[in-house]
Amino acid sequence: MAEELFPEEYRICFPDNRIFISRDHNFAFAAWEIGILRGYIKPGASLIHIDAHLDYCDNSINVKGIDSEDKAIEIASQLDIAEFIIPAQRKGTIKGCFTISDDEVHIEQTDIFQRAYSYNHYEQLLRQKWYKETDGTSMILDLDLDYFNKNYIDYNSNAVLLPSDVINTQLKNIKDYMWDWDMITVALSPEHCGGEKECQYLFGLFLDVFGLNIEYAVSW
Could you give the CA distance from residue 198 to residue 204 in angstroms, rounded to a whole number? Predict the structure, then answer.
């Protein structure tokens, strides 16, 4: 049996860049708490969530009293892959969630959950509004690599990836032309990228555009 490229416990970070990467998206919750503990971000941060899925589900787990990085990871490990945003909002780490996603799921928009259906939708209609609403807050980019797979419905198969030049352009726009990011979290989500090989390919594009050398990554 072939060795997994991204086992369940796969988590790496680039501390100097404040970039945290995990196989499963629920560990973004832990990364943001680590960001608070390390002083990367302040409570009430704004989240720019770019993903094939909205991931806006709650979990009634007690998220108070996180006073160590190990405790943050312990709590995140009890969350589902779609349950990391609302618990972070309940704790006060995140205030507003601003999502770019073409997910077919409908969720009512509120002051703390707003949505664009594509990058162009954000750029043309919502950019200035979101800039004003996030002014003065810490800014977190939360990217799921499955955003670049247009057939994320088929589990772990049949990927329909955007062309590499389109992905590179979108990654560059995200990196350079949105906000000055205080920290970045990335979910690999291989099953929703179409498989591990497809995920590895997308991850390589991300590393290249963001100027990261995997040899300098550390586990977290």
Answer: 10
Q: Where are the domains of the chain?
A: 11-219
Instruction: Give the model confidence (pLDDT) of 44-72 as tens digits.
Output: 999 999 999 999 999 999 999 999 999 99
Contact between residue 206 and residue 171 where contact means Cβ atoms under 8 Å apart: yes
Q: What is the pTM of this model?
A: 0.96
What per-residue confidence (pLDDT) applies to 1? Answer: 46
Is the separation of the CB atoms in 25 and 81 below 8 Å?
yes
CB atoms within 10 A of CB 203: 20
CA distances from 147 to 59, 80, 103, 190 (A): 24, 19, 10, 11
H helices, E strands: number in the chain: 8, 8
**CATH placement of domain 11-219:** 3.40.800.10
